[in-house]
């Protein structure tokens, strides 16, 4: 399964958190952003339980203040 994780970091900690996440197993892509969130991740996991465990590890990283997880939905069917 694929999910997006939106992360808000503590002030001045986004660079540090970025590098801690960069090579974490299960993190497929990470992008720093401006706005309400500081980082956007795409994660890959076998199932929702594995995704939950990965997000729990992400939340344990010092400097991570808030996360919001978005589970990828199947694409819409054609013709409708």
Keywords:
80 residues, alpha+beta, Alpha-Beta Plaits, four-stranded antiparallel β-sheet, 2 helices, 26% helix, 35% strand
What does this structure look like?
- The protein is α+β, with helices and mostly antiparallel strands and 80 residues long.
- It has a 4-stranded antiparallel beta sheet, with helices on one face.
- The model has no long low-confidence stretch (mean pLDDT 95).
- The chain is globular and about 45 Å long.
- Strand 2 and strand 3 form a beta hairpin.
- The protein has a single domain, classed as Alpha-Beta Plaits (2-Layer Sandwich), CATH 3.30.70.
- It is 26% helix and 35% strand.
- The longest helix has 13 residues.
- The protein contains 2 helices and 4 strands.
């Amino acid at each position: 399964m694929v999910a997006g994780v939106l992360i808000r970091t503590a002030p001045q900690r986004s660079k540090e958190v970025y590098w801690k996440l960069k090579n974490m197993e299960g993190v497929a892509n990470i992008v720093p952003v401006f706005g309400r969130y500081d980082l956007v991740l795409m994660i890959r996991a076998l199932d929702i339980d594995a995704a939950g465990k990965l997000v729990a590890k992400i939340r344990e990283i010092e400097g991570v203040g808030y996360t919001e997880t978005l589970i990828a939905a199947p694409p819409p069917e054609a013709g409708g």
